[in-house]
């Protein structure tokens, strides 16, 4: 595959305008906060959400239960837009906002834990991060830690005086954690809880809801997701596993697998932090599965043994054309447009 390619050309896929989607999402959130919401409104919302993952991500971005008022104040122009559609901008409070989202069935899976934590501790920092397909973002946190959020991810955090809590609802994120023995840093997912004091590690929620953890520095502890129902007990269960630097594990309420990687292999698996996807002697099927996380282009395979072909190389996130070019020129495979996607096959199968 091409090496160190720095082409900054426009992406292959045209994603919806983020500002427009955010404004439309805010309008829907406001509408759901009204005392009554019609069946037609709910159906229209469902149709709007179904248009793309970017629509859903924009809507979910406004679900932060503590920051909703400031977000809506920043979007005053939405009131004008809604007035044009015959709606009045309601006076909202936190309970009505949460109730509206709950009625629509759109609260994040661990919102109950989030609310419990907020009632029992004074929050020092509370933020949320949402990325659409192919998007990444980085941010520094108030405690000196930092976060890198990967494609199609949803992350919420609430830091109090005695705990730093993060909820990874979907996708993947890398955390570089500042040491603070008095405030454990915990990442909650549907597949388990990751706890660290001072370390650097990546967490991913896989399609089967299993938790995938890669540790670059320090030590982390894994405990079952059931512990997340009580934040004071999370990470203190006897059923915990520890990972050290260089280890990668799959955990779904219990340890599924664990492996120790050479530093080069670990860094290659975390290359997405620099906007690069890197592979070394990996099954083409696994490469395609990984690449598909970063694009809405549909990629399929056919032909004898194509999925098992071993490939290697690296390219920038979003450079699907570079992948296709390499598969054809370096690995003797055929790539052709079929319907709304691309089909990879053995060149010997070509008519």
**Can you count the helices?**
10
Structural class: alpha+beta
Q: Could you report the average pLDDT, rounded to the nearest whole number? A: 75
What is the radius of gyration?
A: 22 Å
Say how many strands there are: 18
Tell me roughly what share of residues is in helical segments: 25-40%
Low-confidence stretches: 1-16, 63-119, 227-238
Order of helices and strands: HHHHHHHEEEEEEEEEEEEEHEHEEHEE
**Major sheet:** 13 strands, mixed
What best-fitting shape do the alpha-carbon axes yield? globular
Measure the end-to-end span.
Answer: 26 Å
- The portion of residues forming beta strands comes to 25-35%
Give structural notes.
The chain is of the alpha+beta class and 351 residues long. The protein is 27% helix and 31% strand. It is built from ten helices and 18 strands. Strands 1, 2, 3, 4, 5, 6, 7, 8, 9, 10, 11, 12 and 13 form a 13-stranded mixed β-sheet that branches. It has a three-stranded mixed β-sheet with strand order 15-18-17, with helices on one face. Strands 14-16 form a two-stranded antiparallel ribbon. It is globular. The relative contact order is 0.10. Residues 1-16, 63-119 and 227-238 have low confidence and may be disordered.
């Amino acid at each position: 595959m091409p090496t160190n390619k720095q082409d900054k050309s426009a992406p292959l896929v045209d994603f919806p305008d983020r500002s427009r989607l955010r404004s439309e999402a805010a309008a829907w959130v406001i509408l759901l906060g009204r005392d009554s919401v019609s069946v037609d409104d709910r159906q229209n919302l469902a149709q709007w959400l179904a248009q793309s993952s970017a629509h859903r991500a924009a809507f979910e971005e406004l679900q932060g239960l503590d920051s909703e008022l400031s977000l809506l104040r920043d979007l005053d122009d939405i009131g004008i837009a809604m007035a044009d559609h015959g709606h009045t901008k309601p006076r909202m409070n936190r309970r009505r906002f949460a109730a509206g989202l709950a009625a629509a069935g759109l609260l994040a899976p661990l919102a109950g834990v989030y609310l419990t934590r907020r009632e029992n501790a004074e929050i020092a920092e509370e933020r949320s991060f949402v990325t659409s397909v192919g998007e990444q973002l980085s941010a520094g946190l108030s405690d000196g830690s930092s976060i890198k959020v990967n494609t199609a991810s949803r992350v919420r955090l609430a830091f109090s005086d005695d705990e730093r809590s993060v909820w990874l609802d979907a996708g993947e994120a890398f955390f570089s954690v500042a040491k603070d023995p008095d405030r454990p840093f915990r990442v909650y997912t549907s597949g388990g809880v990751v706890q660290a004091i001072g370390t650097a590690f990546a967490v991913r929620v896989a399609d089967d809801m299993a938790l995938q953890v890669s540790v670059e520095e320090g030590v982390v502890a894994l405990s079952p997701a059931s512990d997340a129902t009580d934040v004071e007990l999370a990470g203190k269960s006897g059923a915990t596993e520890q990972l050290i630097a260089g280890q990668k594990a799959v955990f779904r309420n219990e340890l599924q697998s664990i492996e120790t990687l050479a530093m080069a292999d670990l860094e290659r698996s975390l290359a997405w932090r620099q906007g690069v996807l890197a592979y070394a002697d990996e099954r083409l099927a696994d490469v395609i599965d990984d690449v598909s996380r970063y694009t809405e282009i549909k990629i399929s395979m056919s032909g004898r043994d194509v999925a098992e072909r071993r490939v290697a190389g690296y390219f920038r996130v979003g450079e699907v054309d570079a992948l296709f070019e390499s598969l054809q020129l370096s690995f003797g495979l055929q790539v052709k447009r079929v319907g709304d996607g691309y089909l990879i096959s053995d060149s010997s199968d070509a008519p």
